[in-house]
Amino acid sequence: MPEKNDVLIGRKPAMNYVLACITLFHGGANEINVKARGRAISHAVDVVEIVRRRFLPDVKVKNIDVGTEQMPPNEERSTPTNVSTIEITLGK
Amino acid sequence: MPEKNDVLIGRKPAMNYVLACITLFHGGANEINVKARGRAISHAVDVVEIVRRRFLPDVKVKNIDVGTEQMPPNEERSTPTNVSTIEITLGK
To answer: Less Cβ around it within 10 Å: N or C end of chain A?
Structure first.
């Protein structure tokens, strides 16, 4: 379930998510969580690096968690599969 | 420069790197560093999750660092580009 200060990384260009992060911080958030699954994990690290190096140098990486989620079977897969996850907490 | 207990994640199947990690721990290492750049970052998280969930449940994620490296121009790119990096430290 996405929380208020979560940014879920998908397949859009990195700048879309960078803007979402900046908007949350400018709107008063002190901490935000950048979350991704599977191949989007690399993309999440790109977003975090762009936010803190190019736009918000006072923002630090507070915590990084990795994990595994089980995805239920769907039209493409008849068995459940595991997918890796990452959650990067950014704070001022 | 790769250190002794580094596992550098590339494009091979995840199990190759999982085996490299297990071999280092069985050879007496107490800590190993799983490192990746760019798209291989997602793959590095997969490797770490497989190692600790399926093979070595006593191994914990001790630390995760993300960063940026500048890649020099080459035959495909005329300007330097930034690439994201990850370093995941696993320990018993």
So the answer is: N
